[in-house]
Amino acid sequence: MKSDTQHDTQRVKGADLLQIRGLKIEGNSDGVWHPIVKGVDLTLKRGEVLGLIGESGAGKSTIGLAAMGFARPGCRIVDGTIMFDGIDLRTASEAEKRKLWGARIAYVAQSAAAAFNPAHKLIDQTIETAVRDGIRTKDQAVADSIDLYRRLQLPNPDHIGDRYPHQVSGGQLQRAMTAMAMSCRPDLIIFDEPTTALDVTTQVEVLAAMRNIVEQFHTAAIYITHDLAVVAQMADRIMVLRHGLEVEEAPTREMLKEPKKDYTKTLWAVRSLAKDESISDDVTLSIRNVDASYSGVVKVLDNVTVSLPRGRTVAVVGESGSGKSTLARAITGLLPPSKGEILFNGKALPKALKDRDKDTLRRIQMIYQSADTSLNPKQTIRDIIGRPLEFYHGVHGAARDRRVAELLDSIELNENYIDRLPTELSGGQKQRISIARALAAQPDIIICDEVTSALDQIVQEEILTLLMKLQKDTNVSYLFITHDIATVRAISDEIVVMHRGKVVQQGPKSQVLNPPHPAYTELLLSSVPQMDPDWLTNLLAARAEAKAKV
Amino acid sequence: MTAQAPDLRSVRARRSLWQNVRRTLATAPISAWFGMIVIVVYVTAAIFAPWLAPYGESEVVGRAYQPSSEQFWLGTDQIGRDLFSRLIYGARNTIGIAFVTTMLSFAIGGTLGVLTALKRGWLDQAVSRIVDAFLAIPVLIFALMLLAVFGKHILNLILILALLDSTRVFRLARATALNVVVMDYVEAAKLRGEGNRWIIFKEVLPNILPPLITEFGLRFCFVFLTIAALSFLGVGIQPPTADWGSMVAESKTLITFPVRTFPYIPAPFYPALAIALLTVGINFVVDWFLHKTSGLRDEK
Amino acid sequence: MHPVLKTVLQRLGLGLLTLFVVSVVIFASLEMLPGGFAEAILGQGATPETVAAFNHQVGLDRPATVRYLEWIWNILHGDFGYSYAGLGGNIKRSVSELIAPRLYNTFFLAIMTAVVAVPLSLFLGIMAALYRNSWYDRIVNTITLTTIATPEFFIAYLLMFFFAIKHRWFYSLSTVSENTPLLEHMYRAALPALTLTLVIVAHMMRMTRASLINLLASPYMEMAQLKGVPRREAIVKHALPNAWAPIATVIAFNLAYLVVGVVVVEVVYVYPGIGQLMVDSVSSRDMPVVQACALIFAATYILLNLSADIVSIVTNPRLLHPK
Question: Closest partner residue to A414 among B4, B9, B192, by Cβ?
Fold first, then answer.
C-alpha cells in the first residue's frame, strides 16, 4: 500500500515506543489480593519485537495486557508507570485508552476461536476499528483487509472474510486475527501465546505469516509464549520472567548462546535429555492390524500395527486427530477394536475391558495427561496408592501403609504426604502420585498419555528422569503417547509416527529421527521449532526450494 | 507453580476439620448467619414441639377468635384453638412432611441419576425420556391433578410430590454425575477392574455431594412451598393437623380485622411469615454455600 | 435442507411428541387408581351396581384406548367433554363452556403481568449485571432472593392488606364478570397482577443478570474492549446478537412460571380464572374439568419452552451459517 511508505519512514527503529518502569500488579483470589507482577521494567523501541517468556504463573500475559494499560477483572495495577509514546497509560482515562486500543496498540489472543464474535463475519470484525475510528472508509478498509489476508497467505483472500469464525480452521482464524490487529497499522501488537493451541505443522505457517507481516509494516510487537524455540524465531530481544520478576534480558542470539542465569537453561531442560537407544526383540505387547471407530463409520484407527518390547519405551507421536490416544483406549479395552488382534505376552488379549481378568488388568496400567483429573480429589494419597495394593495384592492395614511409604519414597516424595489430598500438591507432585499408583500394581506395561504436556519444562525433565529410573529398576515397558518431539527424543527407544489413524512409520529412534523420512514424518519433524533463530528462515527457504523443484 | 525441588520432601501442618469449620463460619456474611439461626430455631421447635407448645395441637381451649392475651399469646383460631401452639406443631408437621418428601425424592432421583450417568445405554435413554415428559408439566399442576385422582391423603401427598420432584433431582444428579463419570480417575478405576459399587460410592458420590447438598436445600424449599401452597388451596395437609399453609387459609378472613391480634398483625400473617422466614433463611445459607464452593460462580 | 429449518422441525417434532406423551399421562392418571376411580369417588360402600352405573354414565366402561382417541379427537375440535358436576341433574355442563370465560380472564391477568414484568425485569437485570457487585446489585440480590423464597399467597395477602384494607385503593376481591368493562377489569385485576409481577420480576431479573454476566465474560467481549469499542457499542454490537437465546429462555421460563403462579393468586383474590376453577374441581374430583385444565396449563408451558428453543435455534450463528 502506498500510504504505508510514508508511515514507514516515521517508524525508524530506535525511538522508544513503550516504557514500563516498576510495574506491580495484584490478583484477587477469594477476596485476598496477592502479587502477580512484582516490579518489572521493560523498554520497547519502534519496530522492535520483544519476546516475553516464562512458565505458568510467571505473569507474562498480565504484563502483556498491562502494556496496553489494561488489567483483567480480578487484577489491578498497583504501582509503576506505563508510558506509550509519551502517553501515561496508568493515568490515561478509559476514553483516551479506547482511542489507542485497536488503532495504535492491538491485541492478538491465544484462542482466536473464542476471541472472535460468533455472530459476525470475519471481514466485519477485521475492519471494525479502522472504520469506527475513521482511519479508512468501509470500502478502503475491506480492500485493505483482503490485501492483509493475502499477505498472511490465507486461502481465497477475496472471499474468506465473508465467512463466520466457526467456518474456518484454527490456524486460519489465528491469521485472520493478526489481520484484524494489523488493520489500523498499529505501532504495537501484543501477541499473547498465539500459536500455543495449534499443532506444530500448522504453527509453522502461522508463525511465518505473523513474522512476515510484522516485518513488512515495521510494527513493534510483544510476543508472549512459554516456548523458547518459538520466540527465538520471532523476537529481536527476549526477556525471561519467573514469578512476576525479570530473570534476565538479552538479544535473542545472545540469550540462546550463553544464558546468564541457570533458570533460563531449565527452559529447555527436556531438550538436554536423550536416552541411549536400546533395541530388543522380546515383545510383550503386539498390536496387529487393528481398526477402531467410535461411531462405526469413520475409522479412528486404520490397520494399526505396533509392537512394544519388554523393558523398553515406544513413543507414539502424532498431532491432534492422529489416533494416538485412541490407540491407548483400544489397548486398555475401553474401545474394543472392530478388527485385528492384540497379543499380550504371546496370548490374545480379550478385546473388551469386561472380559479381562484381574491379573491381566493389573499388568497394563495407565497414566494420564492431567493429574488434576486422574486423581480423585476426595481421596487421600493413602487411598489412591493403597487401593491397587489392596485390590490386586490383598495387602491391607499397616502392611499396606508401609508399602505406600516405600512407593512414595521411590517417586522421591516424603512419606508424610500419605494423608494429603491431591489438591494440596503441586502439578509435578500429583503426576508423581499417578506414577506411584500405576507402579503399585507392579505392571508389565504402563501407557503414558501425554503425561508431561501440562507441566513446566523443568518439572517435565524431572518426571521423565524419574520414569527412566523406574524403568531401570522394574523393567517395565512404556507406551509413551506424546505430540512433543523433544520428549520423544528424551525417553524413547523406538518411535511410532501416526497420522490420521494410520501408522506412518515405526522403528528405532535413531532410524526414525534421521533421514530419509516418509513425507509426513519429514513434515512433522521439520515443523518442530529449534533453538536456532534462523530455523524458521532456513525451513521456509528449504520448503520453497523443494516446492520449486516439483 | 512453585519450585519443586526444595519442598518435595517438606510437609505443611494440616488444619483440623474443626478449625476449618470455625474459619469458614467466621467468614460467613450476616445473611448466612441469619439463615443458620432461623434453621436452628425451626428445627428445635419441630423436635420439641410437645414440650414447647402451651396447649395441644388440636385442643379447643377457649372461644373462637380471641385476641392475643397473657393466656393465648397470639389469640385463638376459628374454633378456639391456641394459635401459638398450632404454629409450633405446624413446624413439626410442615417441616417434617416436606423433609420426608425431599428425602424420598433424593433417594429415587439421586440413585437413578447417578446410575444412568454411569451406565448410559438404553436405561439412560428410557428414564431420561420419561423424565423429560414429566418435566414438561409444572409440579403444582401435576400434583393438583394427581391429588384429584388419588384423594387428599397425607401419604398420597408425600408420594406424589416425591415422585414429581424426583424428576428434577434426577436431572441434576445425572448432569453432575456425568461431569464426574468422564473424569480420568473414574476411568482409572474402571481400568483397575473396580465394580459399580466402588465406583459409585467411592469415586463418584464424594465428588457430587457438595452440589447435591446445595440442591437438597433448594429442593426442600421448593417442596415445602409447594406443600404450603397445596395446603393453602385446601388439597394438601388436611385438618385437624396443624399446618402453616392450611392455617393461612383457615384464618384468611381475619385479615380484615387487623386490630384483634397482637401486635396488630393479622392472624394469617403468622403462619405465612413462618413459612417465608424458613425458606428465606435456607436460601441465604444456600446462596452463601454456592459462592463458597464455586468461588467465582458469577465471574466465569 | 438448511440446518436451521432442519433443527427447527426436529424441535417442533419433539414438542409435538412431548405434548402427546403429556396428554397420555394426563389421560392415564385416571386409570392408575387401584380399584378404579368410581369406587374412590363413590366410597367403599358402593354396590357393584352403582359403580357400574357411574362408570357407564361417564363412559369409563369402554376400553381406555378408544376413550383416549375420542378424548383427544374431541379436544382437537375444542370439545373437552362434560363436567361430572352436572351429571346428576338434567343439565349437562360442557367443560369448554365452563373454561372459556375463565381462560380469557387468566390470560388477561397473565398478559397484564407480562407487559409490566418482562421489560421491567430485563431492565433491572441488565443494570445489575452492568453494575455488578455494586450496592445496587447487592441490595437487589437480597431483595429478590427474599421474594423468591416467599410463598405467593403471603405476598398476595400483604399487598391486599396494605392496598385494599389499610388504604382502600383497590378491591380486596377481584370479582369480574363477562360484562366488566376493560378498564374496570384492569383495575380489579391490578392487585393480583402486582403480586405476580413481584414474583416474576425477582426470578427473571436474577436469571437475566446471571446470563448477561456469563455473556459479558466471554473472550470476544474482552477482544471488543481491546479493539477500542466503547462499552455501550460493544454491548449493542457484540453482546446483543448473542443474547437472544438466553433472553428468550429467561422470558419463556418466567412466563411458564406465571402459568403456575396464577393458581394461588387467583384463589387468594377470588379472581375467576382457570386456576381457581382447577382447584375447585380438584376438591370435588370433577375429573373432566381437572384434566382439561391440566392439559391447558401443560400445553402453554410446553409451547412457551418450545418458542424459546426456536428463538435460540434461529439466532444461533453456527446453525445460520453452516460450514
Answer: B9
